[in-house]
Amino acid sequence: MKTMLQPLQTTLEPHPDTALVSDFLDALSRLASSVVLVTCRVDGMAWGMTVTAFCSISTEPPTVLVSLGTETAAARAIAGTDRFGVSILAQEQEPLAVHASRPGVAKYLEEFLDPRATRSGSPVVADALSHLDCDVIDTIQVADHVLFLGRVRTARSSNAETSPLLYHRRRFRRLDGV
Ligand SMILES: Cc1cc2nc3c(=O)[nH]c(=O)nc-3n(C[C@H](O)[C@H](O)[C@H](O)COP(=O)(O)O)c2cc1C
Q: How many Å is the maximal CA-CA distance in the chain?
């Protein structure tokens, strides 16, 4: 299955019953989220994008959802391959999260990859807390984002006692508050 992404509509009229974008962003900035890296291959090379819009949808069968800007390189690549990975980042991985969130720049992952991972699945970054390798089973376009629903082929977790990387009030944070 190859996913067809619709061209982005750039002339969306603001709706009178819709919150101001700035109010919406302020409200959402109070939500503390775990930071994940959505991984894929761009021109055959490992690529990652920093994401907080990730959630578990179902356990039987294991299914997750990520929401990516339609115009991002990752969304385009995943639409072409119907495969993506989700690496849940550890608190020490803020530099990787910063690298993979810079708009418009190459977000190749070569220097961050787990050397033990096979090249057949989605790219796996070293020292992540866990990694899910997913097949796209459905996509839904909403406003300027595309939701990818993924069936989880493999799920692996680290045994390290490391805490997750968080994002709250527009800053990366650690569970211990640093
Ligand atoms: C903490 C954090 C969370 C983010 N979460 C998302 C997200 O859930 N979905 C999304 O589309 N972009 C998210 N972004 C922004 C993307 O990482 C960024 O726009 C993207 O890497 C740009 O890719 P591009 O260069 O291919 O356009 C987030 C950025 C940060 C710093």
A: 53
CA distance to 38, 41, 57, 72, per residue, from 63 (Å): 15, 21, 5, 22
Q: Are strands 165-168 and 33-34 parallel, antiparallel or unpaired?
A: antiparallel
Tell me which residue has its CA closest to atom 18 in ligand 1: 101
Distance 121 CA to ligand 1 centre (A): 22
State whether the beta carbon of 50 lies less than 6 angstroms from ligand 1. yes
pLDDT, tens digit, for every residue of 108-120? 999 999 888 877 8
Quick one: tokens of 65? 């959802």
- CA torsion angle for 122, 124, 128, 134 (degrees, to 10)? 10
Task: Confirm if 155 and 19 have CB atoms less than 8 A apart.
Answer: no
Beta strands in 23-129 (DSSP E): 33-34, 36-42, 45-51, 54-59, 62-69, 83-88
Threshold 0.85, pTM exceeds: yes
CA 119 to chain centre: 19
52 touches ligand 1 (CB under 6 Å) = yes
